[in-house]
């Protein structure tokens, strides 16, 4: 349990990739700060399961990451409970699809706030503790869209490119502080959110389930296989190991070959 005694805060961790990362970290002994939205009873069940897995503590914060004051309060709660955050996983994000000249301004603002600005706030607040201890791990969930673009996703692509650049800059600033900063860039990941899109796409385009999966969702992934949340979590966990101490400022693709072309 190489993370026993350390505390990990994972944003957007009540489902999907974030939850898988939280479970992986708890499985190696880390205290966990969960963050996200969802059914209160289900979140409490998850929190209890994480404590059972880690042998430590798990807290839940419903902080709205589009608000700096809410992020500051969440980080303060983590510091009060655990002394600070040793592992920060900036995973929360959102998406909206529309041509840029028709893009709702409020949606642009939301995507920038959640996908990019929130990571700035959590990072600036986590780093003093990490520097003081001489050890820290920051893992940012980016996307294949941190490297390539798709139409009708201007703010998402912009924020994911931004996360990749932010990762590099902070990595350089902390290179001699015992802190590593990296981002993981998955392609299409099999999550309930993706699965729930399939029936609507089948109906809208008159396609079979297999056609939607292979010719729409996986069109850009040469493997024709979805990335799994556990694969992303395993990479995030590895980045927390001592063996990964020389990996910093990296943008690690996990996209079935999408960005190889």
Q: Any key phrases for this structure?
A:
261 residues; Rossmann fold; 2 domains; seven-stranded parallel beta sheet; globular
Describe this structure in words.
The protein has 261 residues and is an alpha/beta fold. The chain has 2 domains: 211 residues, 3-Layer(aba) Sandwich (Rossmann fold); 37 residues, no CATH class. The chain has a 7-stranded parallel β-sheet, with helices on both faces. Helix 5 links the parallel strand 5 and strand 6. The relative contact order is 0.14. The model has no long low-confidence stretch (mean pLDDT 96).
C-alpha Rg, in Å? 18 Å
| Order of strands in the sheet with most strands | 3-2-1-4-5-6-7
Please identify the top-level CATH class of the largest domain: Alpha Beta
Tell me the domain tally.
2
The ordered string of helix (H) and strand (E) elements is EHEHEHEHEHEHHHE
Global shape: globular
CATH superfamily of the largest domain: NAD(P)-binding Rossmann-like Domain
Number of strands: 7
What structural class do the secondary elements suggest? alpha/beta
Largest sheet: 7 strands, parallel
Our estimate of the beta-strand percent is 5-15%
Number of helices: 8
Regions with pLDDT < 50 over 5+ consecutive residues?
Answer: none
Report the helical percentage.
40-55%
| Mean pLDDT score | 96
Please tell me the CATH architecture of the largest domain by its name: 3-Layer(aba) Sandwich
Report, as a whole number of angstroms, the end-to-end distance.
39 Å
Stated plainly, the CATH topology of the largest domain is called: Rossmann fold
């Amino acid at each position: 349990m190489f993370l026993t005694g350390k505390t990990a805060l994972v944003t957007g961790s009540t489902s999907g990739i974030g939850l898988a990362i939280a479970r992986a970290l708890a499985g190696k002994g880390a205290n966990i700060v969960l963050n996200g939205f969802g059914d209160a009873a289900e979140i409490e069940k998850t929190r209890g399961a994480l404590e059972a897995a880690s042998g430590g503590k798990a807290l839940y914060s419903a902080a709205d990451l589009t608000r700096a004051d809410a992020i500051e309060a969440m980080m303060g709660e983590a510091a009060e409970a655990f002394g600070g955050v040793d592992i920060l996983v900036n995973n929360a994000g959102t998406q909206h699809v529309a041509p840029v000249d028709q893009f709702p301004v409020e949606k642009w603002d939301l995507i920038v706030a959640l996908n990019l600005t929130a990571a700035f706030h959590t990072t600036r607040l986590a780093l003093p503790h990490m520097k003081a201890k001489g050890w820290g791990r920051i893992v940012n969930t980016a996307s294949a869209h941190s490297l390539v673009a798709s139409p009708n996703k201007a703010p998402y692509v912009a924020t994911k490119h931004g996360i990749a650049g932010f990762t590099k800059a902070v990595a350089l600033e902390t290179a001699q502080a015992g802190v590593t900063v990296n981002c993981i860039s998955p392609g299409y990941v099999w999550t309930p959110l993706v699965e729930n899109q399939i029936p609507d796409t089948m109906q809208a385009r008159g396609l079979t389930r297999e056609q939607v999966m292979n010719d729409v969702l996986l069109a850009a992934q040469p493997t024709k296989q979805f990335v799994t949340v556990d694969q992303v979590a395993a990479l995030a966990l590895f980045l927390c190991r001592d063996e990964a101490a020389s990996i910093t400022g990296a943008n690690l693709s996990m996209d079935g070959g999408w960005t190889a072309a």
